[in-house]
Automatic annotation (TrEMBL), chains A, B:
Family note: Belongs to the DprA/Smf family.
NCBIfam families in the cross-refs: dprA (TIGR00732)
A Gene Ontology biological process term: DNA-mediated transformation
Smf/DprA SLOG domain sequence ranges: 86-305
Superkingdom assignment: Bacteria
SUPFAM superfamilies: MCP/YpsA-like
Protein name per the record: DNA-protecting protein DprA
Length: 382, 382
């Protein structure tokens, strides 16, 4: 990941990434680790040849079934057919997964980071994820839940927050639709290939989302939705968001899995209460009663989840004056967590930029008032 | 309060108590303190004569307006006319106000303890209060709130809990009615005289409550309901209960005042959530979100408020085998807090029994397995 930024036109690298994105069932930390060490072309070659460096033999088992079957060109063509692209850690819009808890910004954390993402839509994933809230909930939602999901989303997108969800029936759809109606940005994370509309009844909704926002997935084109993929997908919903809000959830709702990911990834978690005799509020009430989730009454409560210190609704990060930055500088900004500081070594690790580039970038960013240094390291200016 | 228990037939004492109960606007700690020192007959005489012992001059100002106007016989007759009686700290059924936080079981705490209580109904106030939950809420309740108040109350009275409320429209009435329907015990605490039905539309409800449970008030017969009396009444609702549950409450609901009393008196506080777009749930959601109240989903949650250590629904205290105890022994049992221990001196103070009587009673209670001693003092057996 060091060295010059690969261009999208670099066909060899693009094919290598597409191969790597498909060669193991996500999430697969060993593939990410191997790419981090060898770069995509060498990593793909090593996996294909079943010959990997010492310390990376863990990559062999999860790739055994698919290593020899190269669907790369088919995947790229099918993606192209639906207007999708593959974005990778080498792309500027790769999101700041550094938002993962600092203590986990190690090899182990890569297990949660996707190898690459298939993306439809005009949005930039990094800016979309910079100020994003996940709004999830029951598929069998009530009209109360749909109404509340719509209201909360409407207020959030008015404040320039991106609303991320899973395009499912019920709360997910209510959130996406409200974001679209409010001309806000919304991101749908799929548990299937980018060329599949799941659920099929949401084909139009997904097309509408892809027209202004983003539809994303870590699964190669053609992949069908499956139970374990919903669970893996939920981790991306949480990881891309600065807070997760569950609007309605029954006792065993899938939304509770997204909530569990929020806790694991240290994302603030909120839940909307409802009537205590409503089965679709049981999960929300349990999370609030157990102290796992904060009670959410309105969009302000959600904003406070992200910014507990208050001071009203802060300007979301995407509205910061980072537009004129070079790729290197942007990468350094994105390497910094929303809270807390990083040392130079950590910024080098997270950003994947050489130490000299990082030092120069920090100096410029400091002058621009975008970062500051204290005895704990470098942090984003509030 | 030391010496033999005065009998209800002691007309002189009864008249003194009725005088004392009316001579100052409740709550009036100085009157309680004076009675504690002089006994009712001497305390009444001293107030009437405007001549009180050193250290008790604080009683003069709050009694100045009424000391010379003796309504005692009128009050006793009006109470008799509606089948009400006056119970006092000298009566066996005087509740265990010792449940007030231990640190406050001092003169200052008497400010919160009523001088005496006018009571209608066949219940014994001490046993009613021994396992009681206050169920309060908005007068302008929704059908959801009424339904929930009824359900929760129905479940609580099935488990032999007393449900205490204020006989107001809305949640209060729904709770009382459900308790009556479930043949459970319910207590209505009024902010007016025992001979007044407030609200007038609840005349039949109050009669029904008085038929099986209790209607109580610290206000003398003839007293009209007034804003400040509702606030003082709310303190008794909380003080008589082992937990307070707010079912619905708007932003400025009177139920929030009862909740404030619960916090002040160290009673566990619960609140029932509802739709976030319901104005009558705003107060409940605020208390839950602020961590002031526990989210209540069902009667089990309420029982856990009282007994956080769980183990299912415990036998309420009234079902303990205290029926065969002497008055002295019962008084000592009731002097002990539901949690924590008291030393002999404190038990003497709270029970108002001589130290020799307390020692004898404790020895018997110990043998019966009702109390136990450890290095912190005497405590109720769990």
């Amino acid at each position: 990941m060091t060295g010059p930024v690969p261009s999208a036109a670099d066909e060899r690298e693009a094919r290598a990434w597409a191969y790597l994105a498909a060669v193991a069932e996500p999430p697969c930390g060993p593939v990410r680790d191997l790419v981090a060490e060898l770069g995509p072309v060498e990593a793909a070659r090593a996996i294909r040849a079943r010959s990997v460096p010492d310390g990376h033999t863990g990559v062999l088992e999860p790739t055994a079934a698919r290593a020899g079957t190269d669907m790369t060109m088919a995947h790229l063509e099918r993606a192209h057919g639906v207007g999708a692209r593959l974005i990778t850690p080498d792309d500027d819009e790769w999101p700041a997964w550094s938002l993962l808890p600092l203590g986990q910004a190690t090899t182990a954390a890569r297990a949660g980071e996707p190898v690459a993402l298939w993306v439809r839509g005009p949005g930039r994933l990094d800016t979309a994820a910079a100020a994003a809230v996940a709004m999830v909930g029951a598929r069998a939602s009530t009209s109360y839940g749909d109404h509340v999901a719509g209201d909360l989303t409407g207020d959030l997108v008015t404040e320039s927050w991106t609303v991320i969800s899973g395009a499912a029936f019920g709360i997910d759809a209510a959130a996406h639709r409200s974001a679209l109606a409010g001309r806000g940005e919304t991101v749908a994370v799929l548990a299937c290939g980018i060329d599949r509309d799941y659920p099929a009844a949401h084909s139009t909704l997904l097309t509408d989302i892809a027209r202004t926002g983003l539809v994303i997935t870590e699964y190669p084109p053609g992949t069908t939705a499956a139970k374990h993929r919903f669970l893996a997908r939920n981790r991306l919903v949480a990881a891309l968001s600065s807070a997760v809000v569950v609007v309605e959830a029954g006792r065993r709702s899938g939304a509770l899995n997204t909530a569990a990911w929020a806790r694991r990834l240290d994302r603030p978690l909120g839940a909307v209460p409802g009537p205590i005799n409503s089965a679709t509020s049981v999960g929300c009430h349990a999370m609030i009663a157990d102290g796992d989730a904060v009670l959410i009454r309105d969009a302000d409560d959600i904003v406070r989840l992200v910014h507990p210190d208050g001071g009203g609704v802060p300007a979301p990060r995407r509205q910061r004056s980072t537009d004129g930055l070079t790729d290197d500088q942007l990468q350094v900004v994105e390497a910094l967590p929303s809270r807390g500081a990083l040392g130079i070594d950590e910024i080098v690790f997270v950003s994947g930029r050489p130490v000299s580039v990082v030092r120069t970038a920090l100096a410029v960013l400091d002058l621009k008032g975008l970062v500051e240094q204290d005895d704990q390291g470098w942090r984003l200016m509030r």
